[in-house]
Amino acid sequence: MKRYTLDIDHELCWGCRTCEVACKQETRTPDGLQIIRVSEAWPRTEQGGVDFIFHVHVCRHCDDPPCAEVCPEEAITKREDNIVLLDDAKCSGCRLCIDACPYEAISFDSARGIARKCNLCHHRIEKGLLPACADNVCLAHCIHLNEE
Fold first, then answer.
1. Structural domain that includes position 109
2. DSSP labels for 105-119?
3. What number is the average pLDDT over the span 96-121?
4. How confident is the model at residue 78, as a pLDDT?
5. Which helix (H) or strand (E) holds 68?
6. To the nearest whole percent, how much of the chain has pLDDT over 70?
7. Other CB atoms within 10 Å distance of the CB of residue 29
């Protein structure tokens, strides 16, 4: 069985945020809720010029997901193919998973009172497609789906 992970080269990211747009279009999340988020860390001076540092926050589908370990409702599970899913129907909105995520990749949907996270567009992967954020929308080509 294939195992999937998401690889992000933060050094290449220039903050265009096309991954955010692609994700929003694919998942139809409400305004104010982001499943993938690009943050600007700070500008730094390098070789006499200013260089901005961007960081992509998205679920990396950990081998041993700490978010799943802390979920009292067992709403977060890991499939055999390494995709970590959050079952909206089981989520109680306790937010423990948000605090446990090392990638700051889980958001809270205040309208629904539940946590939301990337599901690696598993519905696309199952059709042989790439996740929306990695499907040639990233202008810097810094987001890649790995298959092992």
1. 4-147
2. --EEETTTTEEE---
3. 96
4. 97
5. helix 66-70
6. 100
7. 16
